[in-house]
């Protein structure tokens, strides 16, 4: 498609080293990225001759296979990042948020973006499993930045009598202001020593986590299988 071709040409021009590319070649690339802007609409013959010439000039510009492959990898990387950005709806977080009181708890649940999953850990210091679960959720928050992970002490909720030590740690999962899941004494679902991967598997079992985000594409290192 012409739009993709012109986008690639424009990217190649912008990524070229200014010191290594002659002025004539820079001008050729600039014109190829927007060929129809160089002539008036009525000058059809000149435009057609220009397009034929540009095809030959472009062929000459991409003879250096190593240089062109590096540029192509960078272009793929940018396209993948743009696509991921378009597909990532809603706000981003990336950390475990500490809620201080019941009002903040209600705001985190009711005033959040309707597409955002909110996972709240209700805990108390000294309760078995609470510290390990907080550590696990901190790791998961970095992996699933579109999910809002929160923690709040039971005594700070304003309803501490409903969260005795027998039901802690408790996980509450909300979306669009509605309670999706309620897991009391959730640490009993794991072995005595558990980690983020165990909590992740548990939440995935109930379909409460989105697909993992695309890994960062560094240095343009990406083979055809990665692209697919």
TrEMBL record:
Keywords: Cell projection, Cilium, Cytoplasm, Nucleus, Phosphoprotein, Sensory transduction, Vision. It comes from the Eukaryota. The keyword Protein transport does not apply. Residues 16-45 are annotated as: Disordered. Pfam families: Phosducin. This is Phosducin. It is found in: Cell projection, Cilium, Photoreceptor outer segment; Cytoplasm, Cytosol; Nucleus; Photoreceptor inner segment. GO terms for biological process: regulation of G protein-coupled receptor signaling pathway; visual perception. Residues 1-222 form the Phosducin domain. Transmembrane segments: none annotated. GO terms for cellular component: cytosol; nucleus; photoreceptor inner segment; photoreceptor outer segment. The keyword Nucleus applies. InterPro entries: Phosducin, Phosducin-like_reg, Phosducin_N_dom_sf, Phosducin_thioredoxin-like_dom, Thioredoxin-like_sf. Belongs to the phosducin family.
């Amino acid at each position: 498609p012409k739009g993709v071709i012109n986008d690639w040409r424009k990217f190649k021009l912008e990524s070229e080293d200014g010191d290594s590319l002659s002025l004539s070649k820079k001008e050729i690339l600039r014109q190829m990225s927007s060929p129809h802007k160089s002539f008036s609409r009525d000058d059809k013959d000149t435009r057609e001759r220009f397009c034929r010439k540009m095809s030959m000039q472009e062929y000459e510009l991409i003879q250096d296979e190593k240089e062109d492959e590096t540029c192509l990898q960078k272009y793929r990387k940018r396209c993948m990042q743009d696509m991921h950005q378009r597909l990532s709806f809603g706000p981003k977080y990336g950390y475990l948020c500490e809620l201080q009181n019941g009002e903040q708890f209600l705001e985190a649940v009711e005033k959040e973006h309707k597409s955002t999953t909110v996972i709240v850990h209700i805990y108390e210091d000294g309760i078995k499993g609470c510290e390990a679960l907080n550590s696990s959720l901190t790791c998961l928050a970095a992996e699933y930045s579109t999910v809002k992970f929160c923690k709040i002490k039971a005594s700070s909720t304003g309803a501490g009598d409903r969260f005795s030590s027998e039901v802690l740690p408790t996980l509450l999962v909300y979306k669009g202001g509605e309670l999706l899941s309620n897991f009391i004494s959730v640490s009993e679902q794991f072995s005595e020593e558990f980690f983020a991967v165990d909590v992740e598997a548990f939440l995935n079992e109930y379909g409460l986590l989105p697909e993992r985000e695309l890994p960062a594409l560094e240095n343009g290192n990406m083979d055809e299988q990665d692209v697919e």
